[in-house]
Structures are given as structure tokens and as C-alpha cells.
Design brief:
- GO terms for molecular function: acyltransferase activity, transferring groups other than amino-acyl groups.
- It comes from Streptomyces fructofermentans.
- The chain is of the alpha+beta class and 168 residues long.
- It has one domain: Aminopeptidase.
- It is built from five helices and seven strands, in the order E-H-H-H-E-E-E-H-E-H-E-E.
- It has helices at residues 15-24, 28-31, 41-58, 106-120, 135-144, and strands at residues 9-11, 62-66, 72-80, 91-97, 125-131, 147-153, 160-167.
- A four-stranded antiparallel β-sheet has the order 1-2-3-4, sandwiched between helices.
- The longest helix has 18 residues, at 41-58.
- The radius of gyration is 15 Å and the shape is globular.
């Protein structure tokens, strides 16, 4: 039986969201597939600034994800693939939640909202790059109807990644 997904709200990240993301992602489980340890605050300060630029340039970005009470849950959204390897020239969708918000449907709800928003901006397909061992994120790609298109080895981590693709 399919349960109803929770309501999520998405906003362009603010300067303050760098602090909220830093706190939300401090749990080692959250960072398991993102370098394995908590990132410095400066990483999120740069990331939120870059996402504001993406929103201004493209009309989409990695948005701050909020629940109905206005609590920051994490982020979700889309951006041009930022690396020289992998799906160059494509639009990547992604999500990351604070550990206490896992298993409640937030990632799927936010990813679906992302797909609708980028489709409305004229994007015709998206990719999601997911570590091959990240079963939770792979499950989200399945719920979105994405299909495994390619595999890559990340040059920085030497980890196997799956590239899932969805035509919009």
C-alpha cells in the first residue's frame, strides 16, 4: 500500500541555511556516501552561494527543504553536473536529509517536486548520481521512475556510482 507523502516546502537557500545544512548533515550516516565525515561550514557557505547563482541563472538549484513547521530537513533540487567526468552537460537532481528525517517520505516528495519544477523550466531529462551502495537513494530513483543508464568510478573517492536517468 502506498502511503501519502509528506508536504515539503522548497526555497532558494539563504546565508543562514549554510549553518542549518552544516548541523543537519553532521551525523556520520548522512555523510557515509559524501566523503565519510562532516564537512566544514565553509563548504556549505560556498554551496548555498553557488545554489543562489544557479537559481538566478537557470531558475532551479539545490533548494533548502523545509517541513510544514519551517524546520530545515536538508536540501533537494537540480543543478548542472559540476564535474569534468560523469554525465557532463546534463542536469543532476539530488537530495540530502538530516538523519532524523530519514524513512518518512521527505526525499521522495522533494525529488518529485524537483522533477516538476525543472520540467516547468524546459529541462527534458535529468540524471541522479548515486553511490552503488546507497540503497536508500537508489530506492528514491526507483520511485521517480528513473532507470540505470551508466556506471562511473568517482575520481576523488574511487567509489562506484550509478547514473540514473529520467526523461521528462
Amino acid at each position: 500500500m502506498n502511503r501519502a507523502l509528506p508536504v515539503v516546502h522548497l526555497r532558494v537557500p539563504t546565508d543562514e541555511d549554510a549553518y542549518a545544512w552544516h548541523r543537519a548533515f553532521e551525523h556520520p550516516d548522512v555523510m557515509e556516501f559524501h566523503g565519510g565525515k562532516r564537512a566544514e561550514l565553509s563548504v556549505y557557505e560556498e554551496l548555498t552561494a553557488r545554489q543562489r547563482r544557479h537559481d538566478a541563472e537557470h531558475g532551479f538549484c539545490f533548494w533548502t527543504m523545509l517541513d510544514d513547521e519551517g524546520r530545515v530537513l536538508g536540501f533537494t533540487g537540480a543543478q548542472p553536473w559540476p564535474y569534468e567526468w560523469g554525465p557532463k552537460g546534463e542536469i543532476e537532481i539530488g537530495w540530502r536529509l538530516g538523519r532524523e528525517h530519514w524513512g518518512k517520505g521527505y526525499a521522495t516528495a522533494a525529488a518529485r517536486a524537483t522533477v516538476e519544477r525543472v520540467r516547468a523550466r524546459g529541462v527534458r531529462s535529468v540524471v541522479a548520481m548515486v553511490n552503488s551502495r546507497n540503497e536508500r537513494s537508489i530506492a528514491v530513483t526507483r520511485r521517480l521512475g528513473m532507470e540505470l543508464a551508466e556506471t562511473f568510478t568517482s575520481p576523488s573517492s574511487q567509489q562506484l556510482g550509478h547514473c540514473f536517468r529520467l526523461a521528462l
